[in-house]
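Why should sequence recovery work at all? Because a backbone constrains its sequence more than one might expect. Tight turns favour small or flexible residues, buried strands favour hydrophobic ones, and helices have their own preferences. The token representation captures these environments compactly. In the example below, the structure is given first.
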């Protein structure tokens, strides 16, 4: 691989004392004698064991993000199709289209690797929307994809369904996909983040992850919820793609309007706070600060300029879990904490890709007892995780402090 590094610069990477600041290393590169798609990765092939897999994942997640943007444009101009599943969660043509698109592209390149994903085609068939999904997929599929039929699309969706593959108790290799994490955000015009999330698990270990957030605004995370609402009309999120590879770090670049654009990658690191009241928190949209253990010691505020010593800054990021992982991995937030409710099923695809992105950025993810999240706890399907108490995602510096508070408050 003939790679010419034409420019490397460090931006707020180390201060004079040798301490890592929240920031990035920006890598600009030219690639000779290679297809432009190959240039989408920020690390050379010899340093990345799963280079082909992450290259394909980057390409298909970018295509999926463009599918989302196309469907969303149609949704708000024509009324579109917004459906409600039996668990009262919304689903759109984009959810099914993304799953079909990613399933088709990955199966073409890696036919022996099964897919674990959120949707199946039964609901879609019952609403007679296969042709609409087919059109959305055809518009964004790669040029090497054969002409598609409705059956192709339906079968591709079902390849990730709950009955498609039985794993058993041994370590396994498989893709984990959340076609749209935060569909409620997808449905809120431009006012909420949503994520396409794809991870590869090899013999029980997450080795690569790709997240696409079509309406990410670079400066958005520095604003309070009130500022976001006030300034939204002047913000135009260009979108972002975040990738992580075991041992190669976490990186981001803008979601280009051109799928073959190489772009400029920025290496991501978690932020630095090691004092709780200086940290920035994210919590699930369905939960309140008062329902979490830290509320007995700290109240929450959304006013970044007036955070007292007995308060924490609570960011409004909406919707779903993966955008919170993206916030922590990029250094925009310090902590994401989720309580495992008694009747709520926690799905693997809501966490897998976020876990490796945070880990490779220097952060930490465990359950509320400090144990690693077991993706294989659901032996047969690999679809459900069972974190004790909940999920804790931090910059690493604050992890043990938060765990101690959780432990102490649970004993009261």
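From this structural description, the recovered sequence reads:
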């Amino acid at each position: 691989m003939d790679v010419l590094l034409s420019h490397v610069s460090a931006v707020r990477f180390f201060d004079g004392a040798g301490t890592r600041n929240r920031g990035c290393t920006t890598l600009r590169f030219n690639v000779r004698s290679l297809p432009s798609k190959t240039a989408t990765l920020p690390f050379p092939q010899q340093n990345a064991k799963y280079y082909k897999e992450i290259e394909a994942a980057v390409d298909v997640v970018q295509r999926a993000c463009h599918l989302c943007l196309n469907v969303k444009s149609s949704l708000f101009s024509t009324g579109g199709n917004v459906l409600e599943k039996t668990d009262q969660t919304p689903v759109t043509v984009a959810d099914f289209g993304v799953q079909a698109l990613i399933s088709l592209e990955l199966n073409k390149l890696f036919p022996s690797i099964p897919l674990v994903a959120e949707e199946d085609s039964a609901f879609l068939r019952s609403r007679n929307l296969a042709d609409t999904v087919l059109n959305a997929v055809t518009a964004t599929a790669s040029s090497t994809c054969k002409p598609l039929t409705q059956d192709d699309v339906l079968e591709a969706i079902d390849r990730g369904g709950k009955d498609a593959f039985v794993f058993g108790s041994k370590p396994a290799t498989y893709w984990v996909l959340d076609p749209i994490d935060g569909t409620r955000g997808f449905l809120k015009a431009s006012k909420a983040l949503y994520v396409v999330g794809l991870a590869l698990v090899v013999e029980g270990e997450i080795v690569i992850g790709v997240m696409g957030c079509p309406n990410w605004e670079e400066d958005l995370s520095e604003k309070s919820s009130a500022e976001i609402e006030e300034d939204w009309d002047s913000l135009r999120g260009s979108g972002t793609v975040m990738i992580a590879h075991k041992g190669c770090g976490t990186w981001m670049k803008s979601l280009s309007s051109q799928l073959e654009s190489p772009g400029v990658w920025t290496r991501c690191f978690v932020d630095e706070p090691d004092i709780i009241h200086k940290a920035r928190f994210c919590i699930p949209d369905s939960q309140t600060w008062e329902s979490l253990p830290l509320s007995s010691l700290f109240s929450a505020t959304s006013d970044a300029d007036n955070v007292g010593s007995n308060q924490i800054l609570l960011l409004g990021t909406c919707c779903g879990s993966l955008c919170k992982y993206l916030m922590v991995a990029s250094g925009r937030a310090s902590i994401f904490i989720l309580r495992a409710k008694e009747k709520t099923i926690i799905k693997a695809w809501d966490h897998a890709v976020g876990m490796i992105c945070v880990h490779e950025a220097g952060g930490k993810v465990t359950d509320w007892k400090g144990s690693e999240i077991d993706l294989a706890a659901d032996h047969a399907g690999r679809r459900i995780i069972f974190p004790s108490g909940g999920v804790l995602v931090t910059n690493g510096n604050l992890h043990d402090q938060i765990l101690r508070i959780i432990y102490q408050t649970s004993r009261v």
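A few observations help interpret the result. The longest strand covers residues 3-11.
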